[in-house]
Structure formats: structure tokens, C-alpha cells
Amino acid sequence: MKQRIGLVTLVVGDYDEAISYFTRKLGFALVEDTPVEAGKRWVVVAPQGAGGSGLLLAKAANERQRQAIGAQAGGRVFLFLYTDDFQRDYAAFRERSVVFVDGPRLEPYGTVAVFTDLCGNLWDLIEPAGSDGSAPIS
What whole-number distance in Å separates Cα of residue 70 and Cα of residue 78? Predict the structure, then answer.
């Protein structure tokens, strides 16, 4: 059996604001934006060259979901964006006003800095360390 994680849902307050953030600030591709029903859309964004994985941007539909915006991991780092060139992406993100809250720093698993997305979720930007088995970029 062959499996992989294709999408992770990210609850957002507004589709268009989220699309703008991910495509303009982080340089992600808009993979799909399809109307579904009653104002809902199937919106997928992904890092350039992601190879089939991405984020499904889901607009909060009720109070419980609105409360989850920005807190989907309870204050921990929620998503990990791997890069093959940390300095390039770190500089580009800073130039586009992405807010970094920690780092950059060198860890046993690679070079990392923590940033927040438009909703307040924490992300790691990581360039994995050499050949230590830590999810290399291919």
C-alpha cells in the first residue's frame, strides 16, 4: 500500500485574504479555487514544487471554527515549510514583511526560524541538515 498526506486544512477568516497572503507573501501557488456551495470554495495553495501536498484553505463557518483560527495547534508550531535555501527564503519573506518571532538558529535537524501566518499560526521555515535522515528536500 502506498499513502501520502495530500492536504492539511487551515481554517481562515476570509478566502481572498488568505489566498493573497499565501501567494504574495510566501510565494505559494494557487492550485485550485472552485466554488462548491452556498459561498463555500475549495481553495488549495501549495509551495512551488510541492509535489502534490498543499493547504486546503477553509473559511470558518461557525463560532467554534472562528475560535480555532490561529490556534489550530494550541500555540505550538503548526506547520513546517522545508526549503533547499534557507537564506534565500528567509530574506525574501522578510522583504515581504512576513513576521518572524524566533531565529534564525542552527539546530541538529537544520537551520530554522519561526514565523506567524496571517492568522497567527506558528510555522517553522527549515533547511534540513545534511544527510542525517531529517526529511531532505528532493
Answer: 10
**Could you tell me if 61 and 75 are in contact, meaning their C-beta atoms sit under 8 angstroms apart?**
no
Indicate the number of domains in the chain. Answer: 2
Q: To which residue does cell 501566518 refer?
A: 117
- CATH number of the domain to which 18 belongs: 3.10.180.10
**Which amino acid is present at 30?**
L
> Tens of pLDDT along the chain (138 residues)?
888 889 999 999 999 999 999 999 999 999 999 999 988 999 999 999 878 899 999 999 999 999 999 999 999 999 999 999 999 999 999 999 999 999 899 999 999 999 999 999 999 999 999 744 445 444
